[in-house]
Specification:
CATH topology of chain C: Helix Hairpins
Number of strands of chain A: 2
CATH class of chain C: Mainly Alpha
Strand order of the largest sheet of chain A: 1-2
Structural class of chain C: mainly alpha
Shape of chain A: elongated
Structural class of chain A: mainly alpha
Distance between the termini of chain A: 109 Å
Shape of chain C: elongated
Strand content of chain C: under 5%
Number of domains of chain C: 1
Oligomer: heterotrimer
Largest sheet of chain C: none
Helix content of chain A: over 70%
Largest sheet of chain A: 2 strands, antiparallel
Helix content of chain C: over 70%
Largest interface: B-C, 81 and 68 residues
Number of helices of chain A: 27
Order of helices and strands of chain C: HHH
CATH architecture of chain C: Orthogonal Bundle
Radius of gyration of chain C: 17 Å
Chains: A mainly alpha (about 700), B mainly alpha (about 170), C mainly alpha (about 100)
Distance between the termini of chain C: 55 Å
Order of helices and strands of chain A: HHEEHHHHHHHHHHHHHHHHHHHHHHHHH
Strand content of chain A: under 5%
Radius of gyration of chain A: 37 Å
Number of helices of chain C: 3
Chain lengths: ~700, ~170, ~100
């Protein structure tokens, strides 16, 4: 327990910080043990309550930080003590970690509540209601692991959380492990996520090794204090550490080149996509770089690399998002693109901008994913009704048998049928594209301003990405909500129940007003984060940059309206064989195909890396391991030789020598006995004679000596 | 001296001859009779050696009781002669050789090896009389005397037990 | 006086004859009689020594020997009779079932 010796001007709850991890753990343990006997509502509300209590604790910690801005370190256990290696599990409560905690717990709680309703339908569509409990156990596990990540006071503990969220991501992506392409598609997606993350983790671990070797400790405060000294003595170490951590960030936060897992991760249920792959887990990389600001500030060349990686990713992913048809895939690439913005920001040293965008992005991206989930649910419901309700005698063509509720080409005109979902989706989209005064504008604008000042190349790339962002969001809104419904389920889709729509409304409110966190006049967030990161440069609002970006955004939306407004409807009138699936295809031609296939990045990886690796593995397994090692060496040499040896031992030695000795011994005894047996004639007279002869001899000896 | 010697030699020859006769005769009766003769001869030798009581006891017990018992048994069993032939070829030869060896040894010990023997002086009066024997027997050798009586009792019982007819056991 | 060694010599001769009788004859009764002869020769030796040392102990011992010999004869002959009942023969060579 921590006692403050100073006169406190406000309450102080730092000692409560272990509860942010403990509440979700309790939730998942109770759900695991008793979930089988609890009703679905009970399981869901229990898990949501666990996340909610975490949020309450985070709020209390935030309040404490108002009075004690320097924060605290709350140690819990001595974890590893070997020789000079001394790693403890401690909680670091400062403004940066509490910011993350609030985002994770807050958005997480809303998503948990949303899932109560969403999963109720989803487990029934997929045909396994018993899996409901499993979902909430994993969700709570994720919250616990993410809390460990953001509250750790040393890099190793952070890595524990890092791995833990990777595990939960794998578990939740492959939640429907027996569904998907060929019955294993979802499991394959989970595997891909895990492996791509693992490559990133490899970089992280190497960074950790170098850090321990050079610094001798993992603790944040100790490392940051020693950093300048190490930088002057051994700069290559800091460069190596930061670069390797960047590898970890590209894995976890889906940057080039390790982003390929995120689109596939959409195989998981939509709440999972919202929580893990939009709002929280993927932002762990941004958090890592922000936390290591002290290290990154010492190596400007690495910072440049980080910024360029982020900006390139932003642009690259935005282009791909333009060519996607799946509603969740568009949002996935959008996430990668926005993460690129964040990584570029923190790479340039604009930590506040990056964190600010992290917070606002959590709001509107979670909102967008959840509302997309609402749309998908609506279409699924309608499809289900039409399949199983024979009262609706409606004509169904063969397309409806393989109906994909996530394909935007099956949607259209939903704004009249799902009003709430439409309005919140619109708010989220406007926030994402960066139209003032919604949240996205302020955060994105800050990043662009920083980029313009520090890294012009990154600025131009991100500006282009912003243009494309607005374009694809406009395209998506027009395809999904406007126009005429392009499929029967779309015609009959209904709004989702309140348990789904209420969290959406709350998130929409946050997305709309979140900009207030760091308005250019007051810089509240900047001051808040300064307590953790040291002096931060507060960016001045530049009307020029804001104007340029807003103009581009509006131009993009106009372009989208041109292509996907009436022209798209006109296109639908054409007969099916002459109808292109997208207005952009005739314009862009092969470029559109490239965009649709994500510039064939997956295929590239398969050809360059995975196929040779698999061939090598096959070779090593079949030829080296089985044929050479097992068949020849093991069977022939070892087993054969051993058999021969045992043969020699058993026949020549055991039978030939040992048995012979024993047998001959016995034989000789028998023969001797047979020879000697003759003296037992049975005649008493013989015995008497032998006595007598003995007597004579003894007497003779005694007398004659 | 000379008459003693002649007497002794005579008696010795008779004793040895009767012993040999006992050994060699085919008939068991003849052997028994020879043995009786031998005993009587030895009894006379006892007299020569100044043991009158023992001499007469010899005749009474040995010749009179034991040999008569022998004769009873011989005549009871009716086996006077055994058929010829022996299954043990070496037995006789070895036995005779060993016997001669023993004789040679004893001869060597008695006659050839110089020994200091006490002078044989004439005995007092009453040496070997029943009275003298009795005196020692009932004083010094009382215990063996009593034990011998038990021994004789045991022998009697043994003899009866060994030769008594068994009652046939009733079958159950 | 006859040299006392002659008596011992005579005793030895009788003893040897008795031994030979035991070893050579097959008739059980003859063997028994030879044993008696041996005992007798031992008695003669005792008496001789008693005379030699002027001690009556030797003669008392002969007395006991005689008593024991009597007992022994009684029992032995009873044994022979019992064996005869079983085997109808007193040839000791017939009693060889304990051969190896």
């Amino acid at each position: 327990m921590w006692l403050s010796e100073a006169v406190s001007s406000g309450p102080q709850f730092f000692y409560l910080v272990p509860l942010v991890v403990l509440f979700p753990v309790i939730g998942l343990l109770v759900n695991t043990a008793f979930g089988g006997r609890m009703s679905e509502k009970a399981i869901g509300w229990l898990a949501s309550a666990a996340a909610g209590l975490s949020f309450v604790v985070a709020v209390l910690l935030g309040i404490s930080l108002l009075s004690y801005p320097e924060g605290a370190v709350v140690p819990i256990v001595d974890w590893i003590t070997i020789g000079e290696l001394n790693i403890n599990w401690g909680f670091q409560v400062d403004t940066l970690s509490v910011t993350m905690m609030l985002v994770v717990a807050g958005v997480g709680t809303l998503i948990h509540i949303y899932s109560i309703g969403y999963m109720h339908d989803d487990v029934r569509f997929q045909g396994d209601p018993g899996r409901y409990q499993r979902f909430f156990v994993f969700m709570n596990l994720f919250i616990a692991m993410m809390m460990i990540l953001v509250s750790a006071d040393n890099y190793l503990m952070l890595f524990v959380g890092w791995e833990g969220v990777g595990l939960c991501s794998y578990l939740l992506i492959g939640f429907w492990y027996d569904k998907g392409e060929n019955g294993i598609g979802n499991a394959v997606a989970g595997k891909k996520a895990f492996i791509a993350n693992r490559i990133g983790d490899f970089g992280f671990i190497l960074a950790a090794f170098i850090m321990f070797w050079v610094f001798g400790t993992f603790e944040f405060n100790a490392v940051f204090e020693l950093a300048p000294e190490v930088a002057s003595l051994f700069p290559a170490a800091i460069v190596a550490i930061t670069l390797l951590m960047l590898v970890g960030v590209t894995g976890k936060s889906a940057q080039i080149p390790l982003f390929v897992w995120l689109p596939d991760a959409m195989a998981g249920p939509t709440p999972v996509s919202a929580l893990i792959h939009a709002a929280t887990m993927v932002t762990a990389g941004v958090y890592l770089i922000t936390r290591s600001a002290a290290l990154y500030n010492l190596v400007p060349q690495v910072q440049n690399i980080v910024a360029l990686v982020g900006a390139a990713t932003a642009l690259f992913a935005a282009t791909i998002a333009v060519g996607q048809f799946d509603i969740k895939k568009v949002l996935a690439y959008s996430t990668i693109s926005q993460l690129g913005f964040m990584v570029a920001a923190v790479g340039m040293g604009a930590y506040v901008a990056g964190m600010f965008h992290l917070v606002t992005h959590a709001f509107f991206k979670a909102l967008l994913f959840l509302s997309a989930g609402s749309v998908i649910l609506g279409l699924e419901h309608a499809h289900h009704h039409m399949e199983h309700n024979s009262q609706l005698k409606l004509p169904m063509d063969e397309n409806d048998l393989h109906f994909d509720p996530q394909d935007m080409r099956n949607m259209g005109g939903l704004r009249n049928r799902m009003k709430i979902s439409f309005w919140v989706y619109l708010i989220g989209a406007i926030a994402l594209t960066g139209i003032p005064p919604l949240a996205g504008f302020w955060s994105k604008d800050e990043i662009l301003t920083d980029a313009a000042n520090f890294n012009p190349l990154a600025y131009w790339m991100m500006l282009a990405a912003a243009f494309l962002t607005a374009f694809y969001m406009g395209r998506q809104i027009l395809m999904v909500w406007f126009g005429k419904p392009r499929s029967l389920p779309a015609e009959h889709a209904n709004e989702s129940p309140p348990i789904i729509t209420v969290p959406l409304i709350i998130l929409a409110a946050l997305a709309a007003t979140g900009g207030a966190l760091n308005l250019p006049m007051w810089h509240t967030f900047t001051h808040w984060l300064e307590d953790s990161l040291g002096h931060l440069h507060a960016v001045e609002f530049s009307l020029q940059i804001a104007g340029v970006s807003s103009f581009l955004v509006l131009a993009a939306i106009f372009l989208a309206w041109l292509l996907y407004g009436r022209k798209y409807q006109a296109m639908q009138e054409l007969p099916p064989d002459k109808r292109p699936d997208d207005p952009l295809r005739p314009i862009l031609g092969p470029v559109f195909t490239a965009l649709n296939h994500a510039w064939w990045m997956d295929e590239l990886y398969w050809t360059i890396i995975i196929n040779p690796y698999v061939s090598l593995a096959h070779f090593l397994a079949d030829v080296v391991d089985w044929r050479f090692w097992h068949d020849w060496f093991h069977d022939t040499v070892i087993v054969g030789g051993y058999n021969k040896l045992t043969q020699v031992l058993s026949i020549q030695i055991d039978l030939g020598v040992i048995d012979a000795v024993a047998n001959k011994l016995g034989d000789s005894v028998k023969r001797t006995a047979a020879k000697w047996r003759v003296i037992e004639t049975g005649y008493v007279r013989n015995y008497a004679l032998s006595f007598f002869i003995g007597v004579v001899l003894i007497l003779g000896y005694l007398i004659l000596r | 001296m000379i008459p003693d010697m002649i007497l002794f030699i005579l008696l010795a020859i008779v004793a040895v001859a009767s012993a040999l006769g006992m050994l060699l005769s085919r008939s068991a009766i003849y052997s028994a009779l020879n043995l009786i003769l031998n005993f009587c001869t030895v009894a006379v030798l006892y007299l020569l050696l100044g043991a009158p009581f023992i001499a007469l006891a010899q005749i009474t017990v040995y010749a009179g009781a034991i040999m008569v018992l022998f004769l009873f048994v011989i005549m009871l069993l009716g086996v006077e002669q055994l058929r010829k032939g022996s299954a043990l070829p070496w037995q006789q030869t070895l036995a005779i050789i060993s016997g001669l060896l023993l004789l040679a040894l004893t001869a060597y010990v008695i006659f050839i090896r110089p020994m200091t023997l006490p002078q044989v002086s004439p005995t007092q009066l009453g040496f070997g009389t029943p009275g003298a024997i009795g005196e020692i027997l009932f004083n010094k050798y009382l215990l063996p005397f009593e034990v011998t009586s038990v021994l004789l009792l045991v022998a009697m019982i043994g003899a009866i037990v060994l030769t008594g007819k068994r009652e046939p056991k009733t079958k159950t | 006086m006859v040299p006392i060694q002659y008596f011992i010599g005579l005793s030895a001769i009788l003893f040897t004859i008795g031994i030979l009788g035991v070893l050579i004859r097959r008739n059980a009764i003859i063997i028994f009689m030879s044993v008696e002869l041996m005992l007798n020769s031992a008695n003669l030796a005792f008496i001789t020594f008693a005379r030699m040392y002027q001690s009556l102990d030797g003669q008392v011992f002969v007395f006991f020997v005689m008593a024991v010999a009597a007992a022994e004869v009684a029992v032995g002959l009873a044994l022979i009779v019992a064996i005869f009942r079983n085997k109808q023969s007193i040839d000791v060579d017939q009693i060889n079932s304990l051969h190896g």
